[in-house]
Structures are given as structure tokens and as C-alpha cells.
Write the C-alpha cells for this entry.
Amino acid sequence: MKEQGVKWLQLRMLGPAILFISLVSLYPFISGIIYSLKDGSLLDSGSFVGFANFAEIFRMSEFWKAFTFSIGFTICSVLGSYVVGLFLAMLLNMNIPGRGIFRVALLVPWVVSSIVSMVGWRSMIGDQTALVNTVIQAFGFEPILFLSSEKWAVFSVIMVKIWRSFPFMMVSLLATLQTINNDMYEAASIDGAGKWRTFVSITLPQLKTATFVSWILMSIWSFNDFDVLWLLTSGGPLDATQNLIIMSYKYAFIKSSTGIGSALGILSLIVLLALALILMRVQKKED
Amino acid sequence: MIKKPLIALVFLFLLVISIVVNLPVITMVLNSFKSNTEIMTSTQVMPQQWTMENYLFVNDKSAFWQQFINSIIVTSLTVVATILIGALAGYAISRFRTRLTGSFSVVLLLLQMFPFVLVMLPLFLAFRSLHLIDTLTGVILIQTSISLPVSVLMFRGFFDSIPGEIEEAAWMDGCNRWSTFTRIVLPISGPGIAAVSIFTILLSWNDYIIPNIFIKKESLMTLPLGLQMFMQQNATQWGGLTAAATLSALPILIFLLFVQKYIAYGAASGSVKG
């Protein structure tokens, strides 16, 4: 009797959350699969075409370009933001005067909206009169087309993504760093371990869980990035900075090809699952 | 003991890094006080002639304040809904450990992976037939649903840290589980609620994707989308754009000053518990 009551209460407490979350997961997931098997548009639901959309996607060179860029963009962003975040977290973990203020200042890239940060970055690298180019020209070099030459655009979007992501890495790692017992460091220094040795044998192992979780989350967020790429370059020039998400957005909402758009979404999900599985495998092996 | 010169060195380094990292925002704010011609031609970082004309332009000519109010409405309702629904679910998962609640946590992590087009396209088509396009309700509904998975996890982590003895004492005194939750647990959940609020406020106030898909009318746009609209319509008004962007970021920056302690807590509990 009592157990029954608990179960009922549990269901009532979870119910609203399950309902809302289903709205943005279960329902779109099932409809998404159905759309991906049809040749519909935004105005017409279309008819079933089997796996024709997927077959067409695999024949597009645009897809393979976006696929490669997605993977490269994700790896560079995760590694870059991790290295910067870890370094700053270790500095902030030291007893530095005013570190509270530094921590706030270093969080700014993460808390401003994507559009605000893009307005800021355009003031920095938007055109030939932007700040960075002004500095470059002051030193007598040619201005760089950061957003309109292919190579520099790829470089720029990765830098901006790292800029937006490192604060998350920093706060996650800092929270763990602050829990590491000082005794361990003292013991290490008594045993004559150097700075590097202490870092490798004490700090890094302690950070293992936090590192793993932040890598998984950051991989997902970088792979699924839309804001930075769309607002900075819209995937251009010549699709050089187009990831799978931008590509599927273009097909679904601009070219009104819901079949191709949804199929691209499903492919992205599969790639992401594979990426997460690889990361989990690596972590299992480490343990 | 760390040596003094090292501390001074690290301090200087952090100072320089903090400025460099904030350069895009600093440049934007400084540009908002320059005239449009000065922005296009001058190579100086500091304004040669401080002017408020950009702010007056934003104030007079655009739907900025309407969009500011829209953002406040959307963010506050999303936060309230997320806290109510998220606290209930987080408590259920924390206290009643069954197979149902166990798998729920795994599902929550998986949800993080959904590419947004896969989510938004079916919702866009469904909302269109439900006449929820161009309504703030539609945006609030989706933002709440999107912020719930992480919020539930954060609440679970917080409730896990509250010892069960308090509740057991309440049961002894004849409280049932529901009133234990509302009268005993919720009143001491301030830090948990704060962490979830911060996460949700940032997500909702800064959200660009959802309004971009579900709002077409300029008078119903929230700030991020309004800013992009501004950028497209007034390509030459770079000063006005930087002024509008500065105004829209100001509440979030002030907010950051007050809540920075909790942000670390939220990031840690939200992610490590995942």
C-alpha cells in the first residue's frame, strides 16, 4: 500500500519533466526519422523515398567537406579550450591577490550572448580597419582577411570557439582543483618531486573525472555548434567553415528540403554517438 | 610557500590575459561611443570624440526596448517554469532510486547530443499547425524543455547533498513525503535554486537559435535576434549596433558580478554529476 503511494508520487513528480523533455526529444526524434525517409519540403510533407536522401548525401562532396570540418573543428576546439582552461584554472588556484576579479573577467566570453560576442569579434577581425588589422598594419604588414579567405576563416572560427569555450573548462577544472588536498603536494615536495612531476603524477590523475566529463560535454557542444559559425561566417567562404549542423540548417530551413535536412541531422547524431563511445572506451582503458 | 616574485609574475600575467580576453567586448563598448564615420576611418582604439548619438539612435529608431521587454518576459517565465518542474523531478530522482529514475539520468546525457535541426524542424512544423509561431509562449515552452535536462541533473546533485535524516525526522513527526518536500526540503534549497536559475537565465537571455526559428515579427523578437535584424537592416550603422549590443549585454554582465560564486558551483555539480 505504502509502496504504491510512493510510486504514484514519484510518477507525479517526474511527469511534468518527462512531458516537457519528450517535447524536445522523443517527438522530434521520431518525426525526424520519418522526415529523413521522405522527400518533403516546408510546405508539403512529401512521400516516402526510402534511404534515397542518405544515398544522395553520401554522393555530395559538400557533405564530406562539412564532415571533415566538423571533426577538425571539434577536436581543435576541445583540445584548445582544455589547454587554455586548465592553465588558467591552475593559475587561479594559486593564492593571487584579486583572483576573484580575474575569475569574473575570464568568465565574460562565456556569459555574453553569441550575437554580442560576434559584434565584438567583428570589431576585432571583421575587415581591414578592424583592431587586429590596424595593429598588423602598424607593424608594416598586409592586413589579413580573417573571415573572407578560406584558410584564415577556418583559423578564426576555431579561435573564437576556443575563446567562448575555455571559461567552462576553467570553472569545471578549478572546482576540482580546489578539492585536491594540499598534503599530497607537500608529500610530493618532501619526496623531491619537481613541478612537472607533481603535475603529471598528482594534479592530472585527480582531474581525470572532471577532464573526461568536460571533454564529452565540450565535444557535443562544439560538434553541434551553430551560433559561432553562423553568425561569424555563415559557413563561408566557399563552405570552408560549414559544419554538418550549418549544412542541415541550410537544407531544412533555407532550401526547404526537409528530407535532406533531417537526414543530415540523423547522421550528425550518429557521428556524435560514435565520438562519445570512443571517448568512453578511452576512459575505460585508462581505468 | 610560494615565492613573492612568482606571485607578482602570475598577477601581471592574469591581468594581461584578462584584458586580452575581454578585448572584443572592450572594443565593442568603446566603438559604441564613437560616431559612425570615426569607426570606419579612425585607427585609434579610444574614441577621439565621445558621443551618445548611437545610444540615441537605438533609443529612437529601433524596436530595441520592446525587444528588451520581450527578453525579460521570456527569461523570467522560462526560469520559473524550469525551477518548478526541475526541482520536482530532481528530488524524485535523488530520493526514490528505482530503475525508472536510474535510466532517466542516462537519457538526460543523451539528450545533450541532439543536433538542433533534428529537434527544431519537427517542432517548427508542429507549432505552425498549432499557431504557436510568432508567440512568446512557443519560445518559452521550448526553452523550458531545453533547459530541463541539465536543471534536473543539477537539482539531483543538490538534493543528494542534503542528508536524508532531516526528512526522516519530518516523517516521524507525521509529515507525508509531499509536505516534507514542500515545507522542509524546498526552503533550504536556496543554493540549488540559485544555481539552476543562473544556468537558465544565461541560456534563455542569450538564446539565438530558438527565436531565430520561431519568431518572424520584429515586435516579438528577443534581444539576440533583434540585434541580428538590426545588423541586417542597418549595415552602415555599426555604431548603433555596438550600442544596442552593449545595452543588451549590460544586464548579463552586472548579473555575473553578483553570481560568479554560484557559477562555479553550478558548472561543477551540473557536469560532474552527469
Summary: Chain A has 14 helices and no strands. The mean pLDDT of chain A is 87. Chain A touches chain B through 91 residues (CB under 8 Å).
